[in-house]
Amino acid sequence: MRPFALTLASVLLAALPAAAQTSRCDTLAEPQKALTQELFKAVHPYDCCDETLDACLKAEERCKLAERLADDVCRMVKAGKDRAFIERALDKRAQSMVDLGARASFALDEAMSTGAPDAPVQLVVYACARCPFCSVLLPQLYREVTEGSLKGKVRLYLRPYPIKSHAGSTEGALGLIAAARLGKFWPFLLELYGNFDQFDRQKMVEWSEKVGMDPEAFDKSRQEPKLREVLVESKKEGLRNKVAATPTLYVNGRLYSYELDIEVLKDVLGEESEKQK
Q: What is the pTM (predicted TM-score) of this model?
């Protein structure tokens, strides 16, 4: 009799390609590693390599996307997702990253943009001033684009898209447009979202002064009829682009339908930057 026996999980662990050993993959329990290997042998990258993920990871020619997808698979396995969920999720990632038709068009306002002007990735976000999730995601994206891992890679644009069910959404959007006209769009947006639970019309005037605007000029600007016309056009544009909720993201004109977790977005936008270069 052999002095020891290998369990099935041990065999599968040994078969796991070394290139897949990302920090996430390394921390998986043995049953999770078995599911990971099963997925590696079934999933095909949507670019870079025509074989299964398992074969692409073992190939002599390096495929960065295969490594990204391997790490993404391990992330979802670690979170307890099953095979069906993960395969559907990867389909959504592929749909977000592959050109499948005409790209959306936008009437972008440079006063509502940030990031390197020559960045290879254009990220357009339709956001509501009173959207709770927008109040979390937009500051995260701003930090990554201006000083984090996406600096120099992504040019971020915001398109105001008030949601009727969000109280104060129109007033908030008009405040954002007024701040853009006065050259303080991003400081005001960060202040607005940072005080999300204290929102009211008059406090916006106080916040405008806090970020360096003349409060009287801000108050006058946000009441101009032309600003309401700008907002209406932004909303119409969003409807044409089939925006139904906020935040809705477009990556180089493609509708993004994958996860909105900031770490996932950093990975996806990093992928797009590499592809464009």
A: 0.90
